[in-house]
Amino acid sequence: MKKVLGTLVIGMLLLVSHLGAGGWNNTLMGCRALGLGAAFVGVADDPSAVFYNPAGLAFQQERLALSLDGFYVMPEHIYTLPNGYTAESRYTTSIPQLFLSYKASERLTLGFGAYIPYAGGGIDWSEKALGFPFKSYLGVLSLTPSLAFQINDWVSIGFNLNFYKGFLNVRTRMDPFGPMEADEVGSSLSFGAGLLLRPLENLRFGFSLRAPAKMRLEGTTAITVEAPQVGTVKMKLTSSTEFNLPWDLEAGVAYLPWSNFLLSLSVQYTMWSTLQQVDKTIQNVPFVGTLQEVEVMNFKNILIFHGGCEFRVAEGFYLRAGLGYDRSASPAESLNFTNIDVDKFTLLGGIGYRAGRVTLDFAYVYAQGKERQKSVITPLGFPALERYNMNVNILGLGVTFHF
User: Fold this and answer.
1) Helices (H) and strands (E) in the chain, counts
2) Residue 146: exposed, middle, or buried by beta-carbon count in 10 A (0-12, 13-18, 19+)?
3) Which of 53, 274, 328, 338 is at a distance of 20 to 30 A from 176, taking alpha carbons?
4) Domain of 132: which CATH number?
5) How many structural domains comprise the chain?
6) Tens of pLDDT along 268-316?
């Protein structure tokens, strides 16, 4: 009986060891910036510069500016099994954020941001889709104080600290097991820096970096084993999850060929090779002790391209449009129903309107994925293919107060 219970518990724990984020990079920062295709590192002229390029805070004109933004994310994850059955996950999330800038003196500006730079989404597979329900969420919140200094009329530098708070929740159930839920939180610290050059009044060059961090989430994994051999057994075990976040390097240019028209381009190099594996540890497992599971990721470094434009139609009224191409970081062998990562071509757009001390911004994003395939061996020993894809619709609404 002990052997049976131990086998059931280990099987259940191996299932929860998979880390489902529904995507790792989150570039939903600032509705105006997003409408510009998220090519904002060379623009950086509103409070969202805290994320894109803290050096841009130094050139902002308002004494105080506060931006509140929210995004409604509607992803569609698509998983085609070797037998040809196609399952879909639609895990909608709402992502709020806050950015603040304060001009402390002629050359010194302070900033603050509360936002989610990594993950911020999840997956939700129905029992019909996989044979068992599986729902997970991963988010990394950053509380980011910033400081920017204007060296002269055409150069500024900026620095920030990223106080990370990670959240992980996984829920599933598989016969003959009962329900299971893992709930973990953890903290980490990183830093960032930026440089902004203005050689001409209508030309800017921006550079920024964000340093890596090691996340360790701790909490509990609760399991109910329901089996005729042992009856119903409930356990609440101490658990932890560890993974690395990457270096981010970005460069961009912003150019105003006319006073009412802005062009912006950026390229981002994200060193996801820091994420080689996710380590899961669960303590005091009956008849086993400490169970350690390694989910091999072997992520690779990627380039992300963004471009956009902004047209001032009339005083205070703006139209925006942008394009993006996001490369996948996962190798084919790391793809599974909890980690669907594909190349994405992104269309972005937005509208802005300023009346007095208030600006309203609306943004829309559509990301279309490029299907990927993974070679697998069926239980009968035959080669087969799994297929993965995703598409995302995003709505954003923001308000900025100028003082």
Assistant:
1) 4, 20
2) buried
3) 338
4) 2.40.160.60
5) 1
6) 999 999 999 999 998 988 777 888 888 889 999 999 999 999 999 999 9
